[in-house]
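This section describes the prediction task in plain terms. A model, or a person checking by hand, is given the sequence of a single protein chain and must write out its three-dimensional structure as a string of tokens. No templates, partner chains or ligands are provided. The sample shown here is typical of the held-out split.
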Amino acid sequence: MPSSLPRPFAGLPVRRLTRDDLVPCADLSEDRGWPRDEHRWGLLLAAGTALGIDDPDGKGLMATCVVTSYGPRMAAIGMMLVAERYAGQGVARYLMRETIKTTGAAPLSLYATAAGRPLYEKLGFTVVGSAQRVSGHFRPTAGTCGPDGAARPGRSVRPASAGDLQAMLRLDAEAFGLDRTHLLTRLPAFADHLRVAEDGGELIGYAALWPSADSHVVGPLVARDTATAKLLVASLAGATDRPLRADIDARHQELLDWLGERGLQPGSETTVMSLGDRQPGDWTQCFAPLSVATG
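The expected answer:
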């Protein structure tokens, strides 16, 4: 498979994107029918390594891709976007190959759309799971405060404070299997709401709510069990009038059913793929990523 940029684009350099590229990145998202999400792009440009190819016609960016590194054991790839006018011309394949070169020997993980999956399979990625997107207005019911999500003796949810950070990092490392300090320390500034769940004084879950277009996204959502995950979602839903959106690990069917009962409808499904070793950690505690762009 050729690694050079296809004609007529030969000679165009791949460069590191910076905060100065935030608006062109958002423009490219909009070009592909995605939300502009300048807020999320700001996080990705700060916490990850973003690569891009400038449009030879001077119209912003031809393509982007972001790598979020978690050390030598894994890197996540996301935001692989090619401007509509250059789609299907080999640009994505070239940029993916160039991006993979920057990650060294680290295993890679990504969330693939149906359109992107064939390319990733050709590059050697294999399917390891899937995520179901759900969205809609959350409808609280009497059941929200019952045993399926609820307040149990000693269990509670409250806004996170600076003093919770170390406990959050320990819980996250146990669940995700890797150190995400460089990402999670940015959550208080990134999220509109950040909540933690406790049981008898022990932190057993946390979740964030951040803005995307006219919605609020739930993620990350990390919890010791499904009941705690429900409790966190219900708490966050009560903090906003916007529709909610989340990408739930498809293995958490109980949570998906519960969200459906409360008004969140299924949308697109993404395929979780890996190149190299599979991601470590405990999927039973990882209910939703911060974003499909960060793994």
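For orientation: The longest helix spans residues 91-102.
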